[in-house]
Amino acid sequence: MAAVKAPARQAEPPASRDLETLKAAAASCTGCDLYLNATQTVFGEGPVRPLLMMVGEQPGDKEDVAGRPFVGPAGGILDRALAAAAIARDKVYVTNAVKHFKWTPKGKRRIHETPRASEMRACRPWLEAEVEAISPRLLVCLGSVAVGSVLGSGYKVLSQRGQVFESALGPALITVHPSSILRVEDPDEKNAAFELLVIDLKKAASWVERAAA
User: Fold this and answer.
1) Residue 2 has pLDDT above 60, yes or no
2) Is residue 79 classed as helix, strand or coil in its secondary structure?
3) HEC-encoded secondary structure of 128-188
4) In the predicted model, what is the mean pLDDT of residues 168-194?
5) Is the four-CA dihedral 184, 189, 194, 200 of positive or negative sign?
6) In angstroms, what CA-CA distances link 147 with 86, 90, 95, 104, 135?
7) What percent of the chain has pLDDT over 90?
8) CB neighbour burial string for 55-88, b if at least 16 within 10 angstroms, e if fewer
9) Which residue ranges form the domains of the chain, and what is each CATH number?
10) Checking DSSP bridges between strand 170-175 and strand 164-167, what pairing results, if any?
11) pLDDT of 80-114, one tens digit each?
12) Which pLDDT belongs to residue 12?
């Protein structure tokens, strides 16, 4: 008989702000029920004191299996956009607002579902700990879930994209999630959507440069 996982309980990250310590602790997080069906916790990765911290929604199918953020198709779009914006990938920290893959079965595929507000709140302590550990100059919120987690309700991705707002975690720029570009079918519209993401990332880089001046 398969082992039954324990019910969710509120997560409390350790006092340490060492990334490896945080990552190890997050691996056993049961702060919400998402861990019940996920392969593993997918923690963020990247340098300490980065120029930019990319905050996505949640791991996808590829990330859930690999245990690393942004290694699937959306990650490929993000990498291309960073390169087009002349942003060094190794200077960027990537993570997600929610650290477990939320999905529903569709045949043999696992289709992602949008995290609930309660699941975002359960994962918030880990995001806060990551920000404290790495001290990014600017957070880049990729999509509505990241925007809601970092900035709270009342912000709109499409009407406020490319703008920087103050949050409890620090200054944050709003833009779309790279997965939204994957869903665009028309080639011309897809290229236009990609270019808009590049423009937003260039704005993020320019903001960082001005802040450092």
Assistant:
1) no
2) helix
3) HHHHHHHCCCEEEEECHHHHHHHHCCCCCHHHHCCCEEEECCEEEEEECCHHHHHCCCCHH
4) 97
5) negative
6) 24, 23, 13, 23, 18
7) 90
8) bbbbbbbbbbbbbbbbbbebbebbbebbeebebe
9) 19-212 (3.40.470.10)
10) antiparallel
11) 999 999 999 989 999 999 999 999 999 989 998 99
12) 81
Count Cα neighbours of 115 within 13 Å in the Cβ-side half-sphere: 31
**CA angle at residue 75 from 31 to 168, to 5 degrees?**
50
Which amino acid, one-letter code, is at 36? L
The answer on pLDDT for 194 being more than 60 is: yes
Q: Is the pTM of this model over 0.90?
A: yes
In the numeric block, the tokens 């270019």 are attached to 195
Region at 180 (left for phi over 0; alpha for psi -120 to 50; beta for the rest): alpha
Burial degree of 137 (CB within 10 A; 0-12, 13-18, 19+):
middle
Give the contacts of 196 (CB within 8 A, at least 6 positions apart).
161, 176
Separation between Cα atoms, residue 133 and residue 49, nearest integer Å:
8
- pLDDT of 10 above 60: no
Write the CB contacts of 127 (distance below 8 Å, at least 6 apart in sequence): 55, 95, 97, 149, 150, 169
Distances (CA, A) of 127 to 83, 144, 162: 25, 16, 22
Quickly tell me which residue has 């994209």 as its tokens. Answer: 161
